[in-house]
Amino acid sequence: MEPPRPRPEPDHAEEGLAAPAVLSIVAAYLRPHARWLCLAAALVVGGTAAAAAMVPLARGAAEAFSALTLRDLNLVVAGAVGLFALRGALSFGQAVASSHVALAVTAQLREDAFARLLQLDEVRTRGLRPAELTTRLTTDLDRLREALAAVLAELVPSILIIAYALGSVFVLNWRLALATLIGAPIVGFAIARFGHQLHALAGEGQARVAEVAVRTQETLTALGLVRAFGREAEELERFVKASQDHRQALWRAAWLGAAQSPVVATLQAAALGGVLWVGGWEILEGRLQPPDLLAFAAAIGIAVDPTLAVSHAWSRIQVALASARRVCVLLTVGPLLQADPGAAQLGPVSGGLTLTEVDFAYPGGPPVLERVSLVVPPGEHLAVAGRSGSGKSTLAALLVRLTDPSGGEVALDGRRLSGIRPAELRRAVALVPQHPMLFAATVAQNLRFGWPGASEAELWRVLRLAQAEAFVRALPEGLETIVGEGGAGLSGGQCQRLAIARALLVDPVVLVLDEATSALDPATDAALREALRLHRAGRTTIWVAHRSAWLEQADRVVVLDGGRIVQAGPPAHLRAREGPYRRLLLAARDLHRHPER
Fold first, then answer.
1. Which of 173, 211, 465, 557 reaches 20 to 30 Å from 80, CA-CA?
2. DSSP-assigned letters across all residues of 91-126
3. Among the ranges 43-47, 241-245, 409-413, which has the highest mean pLDDT value?
């Protein structure tokens, strides 16, 4: 197995995704919901009209009160109540339409991002941390959903009401309107400034919550290792630091958010006070009538709450933009493992593999494989040997197309792997890694992962081949026993045997075993090796191994060193010569005799 590769920094990708690109992606997801958006817009216009009607109502009320009658009083009160009720009903419909669009868009974004993750080049994208991806698909998308709903339900109607209010005040008295506009830039600057700072803090906060999730997931996954080395205190310290960094980021955002409303409200009150003073002066000078000032105040009044709503909505948009960037980058991350355009059906497969001048390197890293050429005839049992870090596991990953080569070509029966549809390739070729993944499900569900329709008899057949029948029958519920996530509750050898049984159930034409029996005891390993030799007779089987028994059982051995094939041939032939294979064999046998070394 190759040593772990350096983990890339997680946030570099989103740094290159500019705000216009993020907005363009979100807009593309909004387009299919044009009807709901139009409905929301119509309800917004209706609600705005209902709010706007308060201005003439206020003027009419002021005039009516100068010569009040019971009929006038009834009309004014009924009109006010009716307008508020209508506005409430339209606001309800608008909120429902907005929520529908926001929920639909974020659900589709989540599903598309997850679908893309399933197509990623697994080897080159190992730096993507599962816990961080989880926060992007949950917490970040929830923030985006809230912001979309806020835009449709708060920002747009508020802007329309403010625009109407400004138009009304100019019609009523242009001098007072100009006085009003003097304070508008100050309020607008304050809103924009708060929004800019909240955007930065939101990005930091989401990165910190992702780090808390990563620390939790990594520590709990390796809890046994943490305890074995007595690192509980150190891991707790790392978690506390991540938690405190997250708290500090949220505290700064909360402080700024708490300051926003009173600051904006105070600026509004100062502007309104100035306008009322100017209005009072105009009345004293005889240039304005009290009913006109009351109507003017009503127009300004209906814009007060919308201005605060714009401030809040803008802040939420800035927070959501940081979250949207973290989600949208998942829609652009690559490379993907996709079939070439025009890929045809695979058809019958004989199992011949060909590697032609294959190179491989991790992004920004040195070559792992260089100019590797290899022909594996159908039905051959091939062993791949070499020192740690020589490129064996990378070669195994290339054979089943978990990644694509940096150069050269890998072919199955003469067809490039990229020219075969992924689903068909997976039915023909299977890999069992050294550290298999088992899901938190029953033994049967784990086995049926590759063939959901397999019968119970088929399950017992492959368990018998994988030397796993006895221990599965001894489990409390047999096949229906729940296996913990990652195989918790089972030994390493038991997990490996279940993984081998799962691969055998698919009955692939080509089976690749990457140190798949490293945790087995010698007796079980020998029994499994013999069972596979008989079961896989005539079908291509490739195993990466260090144990001499596996190497010696192969039809042919390929030795890798420094990413190149340095020796190849039948094991007996290679064993008789001085060279890399003989040295590996002697080292393996010496280690077997003296395990304490």
1. 173
2. HHHHHHHHHHHHHHHHHHHHHHHHHHHHTB-TTTTT
3. 409-413
Residue from 321, 242, 154, 102 nearest 250 by CA: 242
Return the C-alpha torsion angle 470, 474, 475, 476, nearest 10.
160
**What gap in Å lies between CA 561 and CA 557, rounded to an integer?**
13
Helix (H, G, I), strand (E, B) or coil at 372: strand
The half-sphere exposure of 590 on its side-chain side, counting CA atoms within 13 A, is: 7
Peptide bond just before 422 cis, omega within 30 deg: no
For the segment 92-111, the average pLDDT, to the nearest whole number, is 87
Listed residue (165, 118, 110) closest to 143, CA to CA: 110
Q: What is the DSSP code (8-state) at residue 419?
A: G
Write out the DSSP string of 302-342: HHHHHHHHHHHHHHHHHHHHHHHHHHHGGGT---B--PPTT
Minimum mean pLDDT range among 15-29, 147-161, 165-179, 475-489: 165-179
271, 178 contact by CB (below 8 A): no
Q: Which residue has the tokens 């940096």?
A: 406
Contact at 8 Å (CB) between 355 and 409?
yes
C-alpha to C-alpha distances, 328 to 21, 106, 151, 394, 419, nearest whole angstrom:
9, 11, 19, 30, 28
How far does Cα 587 stand from its chain's mean position?
44
Helix (H) or strand (E) holding 130: helix 130-135
Pairing type for strands 415-416 and 407-412 reads: antiparallel
C-alpha 509/C-alpha 198 separation (Å) is: 56
Residue whose entry in the numeric block shows the structure tokens 């809890």: 223
Helices (H) and strands (E) in the chain, counts: 22, 12
Tokens found for residue 595: 């395990």
Instruction: Compute the distance between CA of residue 308 and CA of residue 246 in angstroms, rounded to an integer.
Output: 28
> Which two structure tokens, joined as six digits, stand for 523?
């007796």
Phi, psi at 556, each rounded to 5°: -150, 150
Residue type, 56: P
Give the model's pLDDT for residue 9: 38
Q: In 10 A of CB 341, how many CB atoms?
A: 6
pTM reported for the whole predicted model: 0.71
Residue 458: pLDDT band (50, 70, 90) is: very high
Length of the chain, in residues: 597
Q: In terms of Cα–Cα distance, which of 591, 597, 481 is closest to 546?
A: 591
Residue 511 DSSP SS3: strand
199 pLDDT higher than 90 = no
User: What's the CA dihedral at 362, 367, 370, 374 to 10 degrees?
Assistant: -40
Instruction: Tell me the pLDDT of the chain averaged across its residues.
Output: 80
DSSP state at residue 33: G
pLDDT digits (tens, 9 = 90+) for 35-55: 888 888 788 778 777 766 766
Coil/strand/helix, residue 18: coil
- 123, pLDDT greater than 60: yes
Could you tell me the pLDDT band of residue 485, with boundaries at 50, 70 and 90? confident
Alpha-helix residue ranges (DSSP H) falling in 400-521: 422-428, 443-447, 456-465, 469-473, 492-506
Residue located via tokens 């596979």:
532
Q: CA distances (Å), 211 to each of 202, 215, 241, 328, 360, in order?
A: 14, 6, 10, 19, 31
The pLDDT value recorded for residue 6 is 35
State which amino acid sits at residue 484: G
